[in-house]
Design brief:
The structure is a single chain. The chain has 20 helices and no strands. By secondary structure, it is mainly α. The protein has a single domain, classed as Growth Hormone, Chain: A, CATH 1.20.1250.20. Helix 7 runs antiparallel to helix 11 and helix 8 packs across helix 17. The longest helix has 30 residues. It is globular, with a radius of gyration of 21 Å. It starts with 26 loop residues before the first helix and ends in a 14-residue tail after the last helix.
């Protein structure tokens, strides 16, 4: 996107919350927006892009090397699947830490420390030939990703309340780009270094870059004093029992389970069908590249209308077609079906991450709602890759596993019709 986009984005929190969860721009909105320097606007978006770029390389770099890691460490398919399942589970469990961290350190500093954890854990994979150490670094990775990823939607709510889907689309595009780059270069890096641990550890360099750019954002004066809070004090019983919290959480769990299951096993599926590791890695790269198309295009189109449902439905229809064809006709035009699957899942991610922003009355509610949604969503989604590996171990092929993913996609489609506009949630401390 060119520079004109920055003239369209609000970087101030409105003094009052509109009754509508989709407020229309006002003259005051544009006055506030133009009062900030172009460099400040650029830094905010660049920082968000670089931080989100770090959310997937440490995960997506594993699948192209999974067969090699499995053989080298003498792992079963189920144990090997833990290398992608554990980060997802950790991203869910540790999402609950995001709000207490934000209240104590401040949102921007909490994100900074989280990216530092990602960088340290990724670099520590140099010693990944020890299985337990490798799994340990994977848990820490999930913790860092959980905290930073949970807090970014409230960052969007605070600075870009009127362009939530577009900005979330930029964030999702950067996140997906990180996954694409890591998946595409994992095997070449292995060929260059001659060691898969070096290939996995290489991606820590992007955490360093993100830390350098994000650090200036932590120097701004906080609007509130630090407070030490517990998880139980932040999330009341009313919060946990809110029906929309559960609806959004389950929906995110379904679509996230689809993404991580495909991410983990699409390459091994085609290797089992006789493809080389390079060709299977290329297919994974196409899957992730088409996600970029879906995330960038569908998020922009969805921001033109307050009702997200048509675009959610469209995205899930595309992914359903892709999953069905891969399951039934895996060797018939696989790049076409993987592309449809990628566009669909790429489009659904920013839309699902925008739901907590759309339905929140203020940025603190957005922070809490995102934390709870990611806790349940990613915790449940972590079942996917391991379940695929277990089914593969039991039945000796991937047919039933991918057929199950297709039916999960259909269930997500049913949820689409629930997310009507005009819903406002308030979760007070």
């Amino acid at each position: 996107m060119g520079l004109p986009i920055f003239k369209q984005l609000s970087l101030q929190i409105p003094n009052t919350i509109s009754q509508s969860v989709y407020p229309s721009p006002s003259n005051n909105y544009f006055q506030q927006m133009t009062s900030l320097s172009l460099s400040k606007r650029f830094l905010l978006i660049l920082g968000m892009i670089l931080v989100s770029f770090n959310f997937r390389p440490a995960i997506s770099s594993v699948p192209p090397l999974l067969e090699l890691i499995k053989t080298d460490l003498n792992l079963s398919y189920f144990v090997a699947s833990l290398l992608t399942a554990i980060p997802t589970l950790s991203m869910g469990i540790f999402a609950l830490l995001a709000v207490p961290f934000s209240r104590f350190f401040g949102r921007e500093k909490a994100i900074l420390y989280a990216v530092f954890l990602i960088g340290i854990a990724t670099f520590s994979r140099l010693w990944g030939s020890n299985l337990f150490f490798l799994l340990g670094t994977t848990i820490v990775l999930g913790m860092g990703i959980a905290i930073a990823q949970t807090l970014l939607p409230s960052f969007v709510k605070a600075h870009f309340p009127n362009r939530a889907v577009s900005i979330t689309g930029i964030y999702a595009t950067s996140l997906t780009l990180g996954a694409v780059v890591a998946a595409g270069f994992s095997v070449p890096l292995f060929s260059f270094f001659g060691d898969w641990t070096f290939s996995l550890a290489f991606w820590s360099i992007f955490a360093i870059i993100a830390l350098v750019v994000w650090f200036p954002l932590t120097l701004q004066k906080r609007s509130e004093t630090p407070t030490q809070v517990s998880i139980s004090s932040v999330f009341s019983k009313a919060t946990w029992s809110h029906p929309w919290v559960w609806a959004i959480s389950l929906f995110l769990a379904l679509v996230t389970l689809l993404f991580y299951s495909v991410l983990s096993w699409i390459s091994p599926l085609y290797i089992s069908l006789g493809w080389s590791a390079n060709d299977a890695g290329l297919l994974l790269t196409v899957f992730l590249l088409t996600q970029l198309i879906g995330a960038a295009s569908i998020s922009v189109l969805a921001d033109l209308n307050t009702d997200r449902r048509p675009w959610i439905f469209f995205s899930l229809v595309l992914s359903a077609i892709g999953l069905f064809a891969i399951t039934m006709f895996p060797l018939l035009e696989p790049f076409l079906w993987v592309s449809l699957l990628g566009i669909g899942l790429g489009g659904i991610f920013p839309l699902s991450m925008t739901l907590p922003i759309d339905y929140s009355s203020d940025e603190k509610t957005a922070e809490k709602l995102t934390s709870i949604v990611l806790f349940f969503g990613y915790s449940l989604a972590a079942i996917g890759p391991s379940a695929i590996g277990l089914i593969r171990d039991i039945f000796g092929d991937y047919y039933l596993a991918f057929l199950s993913l297709f039916f999960i996609n259909l269930i997500a489609l049913i949820f689409t019709f629930k997310f009507k506009p005009g819903i406002s949630i308030s979760l007070s401390d």
